[in-house]
Specification:
Keywords: Membrane, Transmembrane, Transmembrane helix. Helices cover about 80% and strands about 0% of the residues. The protein has about 100 residues and is an all-alpha fold.
Amino acid sequence: MIELLLVLNYLIYRSIYHGLMVRINEAVLIGLFTLIGSCMIVKLEDRNFFRMRNALIGLFIVLFIMMVVMSAVIYYTFDLSDPIDKPTLRDSGHAILHT
């Protein structure tokens, strides 16, 4: 369970930082494999297995929806284009000094 939370925390950080649908697809795949692995770790004879599995699936769905919403908000709110293409404040300062 701790590994699942760490992976989801990392994926939320990646989706916030990049805000791209590629990261969402990556997050879905890694989260799905983590979910399957977590379910396989639990013994099949355990009575609470199905309850735990349903809780993990519910948590995964909620976090996936949150990541999609956050990614869309960040993508449309901030300009995430490549900063190499546009001049920065430092570049304009160098241009002023060299003229």
